[in-house]
Write a structure and sequence with these properties.
It is built from nine helices and eleven strands. Strands 1-2-3-5-4 form a five-stranded antiparallel beta sheet, sandwiched between helices. Strands 6-9-10 form a three-stranded antiparallel beta sheet. Strand 2 and strand 3 form a beta hairpin. The radius of gyration is 20 Å and the shape is globular. The N and C termini lie far apart (53 Å).
Length: 279
């Protein structure tokens, strides 16, 4: 087991049901994945003549959100939402199916370096990025419309939000036909616009974005595409520009604080004046 010494005790304390699934620790390749709050590991079981290689994601919770994520995953699985399957759960351990695909953050951001607008991209690359954004919008729209808590007078729709919703929380399969949502430990009931504001924040704050460019026009275009696609699907939901604007600015300020960035006061008008009025 090729894992840092300080994390070996995590594996030595695995519950029996997960240990049986994983098998001999000496036959496991382990990679720690980025996570600020909990320990997350990519596990690869060495293949043999009898069995193909198996891959899992193991989460060890250092927060109190284990039950919240497990219950949300179980609920969404019953609804048929595209999420990883839970293999086994015994607090504070969660063993998940590993999704083979490409992180949405990379699909979107890598081609956008050194350009200012989507029109500068090769047609096929532009089409791929827009398709990815549309798939993300549909995934969130499906999550929300199947989990409406309050929907009165079309003024405010309360839904099950994914919570702290970032581009990196989504993986597109290599066949480019399916998008999976990951990480539900922060899921909660709230205004459906909360999730939308976090996605738009993630578009703006990931490189190349608001902190690298004076005017990230390509990201504004993608924000508009995302919002229009979402509300085409959930057309009974009402978009509140003021609520969205406040949530987006608050999220950007949260990101600035998380990263310890030295940034002047955000120009709210400059950021928001190119958001589509069609909504």
């Amino acid at each position: 087991m090729d894992i840092e010494h300080r994390y070996k005790m995590v594996f030595l304390n695995l519950p029996e049901n997960i240990s049986k699934i994983i098998g001999d620790l000496d036959n496991i390749s382990v990679e720690r994945l980025k996570s600020k709050k909990n320990l997350v590991f990519d596990l690869s079981m060495k293949s043999s003549l009898d069995e193909p290689q198996k891959n899992y994601i193991l989460k060890y919770y250092r927060t109190k959100n284990a039950d919240n994520e497990y219950s949300t995953l179980s609920h969404l699985h019953k609804q048929g939402l595209v999420i990883p399957s839970v293999i086994s759960y015994e607090k504070p351990f969660l063993l998940l199916e590993k999704i083979d695909g490409i992180n949405l953050c990379d699909i979107i951001n890598e081609p956008l370096n050194k350009i200012n607008e989507l029109a500068e991209l090769e047609p096929e690359i532009r089409k791929k990025i827009i398709k990815s954004i549309d798939m993300l919008a549909k995934w969130l729209a499906d999550l929300h419309k199947h989990n409406i808590i309050v929907h009165q007078d079309f003024k405010k729709t309360i839904v099950l939000n994914k919570g702290d919703t970032r581009l990196r929380d989504f993986i597109i399969c290599r066949d480019s036909k399916t998008v999976y949502g990951l990480d539900f430990e922060e899921s909660y009931e709230g205004n459906h616009i909360d999730d939308l504001a976090w996605i738009c924040c993630s578009l703006l704050d990931t490189n190349p974005g608001l902190f690298e460019l004076d005017e990230p026009y390509h990201k504004i275009e993608l924000m508009n595409e995302f919002l229009k696609q979402y509300y085409e699907i959930n057309n009974s939901f009402t978009f509140s520009f003021n609520y969205f604007a406040d949530a987006l600015i608050n999220n950007l300020n949260t990101v600035i604080k998380r990263r310890g960035l030295i940034v002047g006061k955000l120009d709210k008008k400059r950021i928001l004046n190119n958001i589509t009025e069609d909504l």
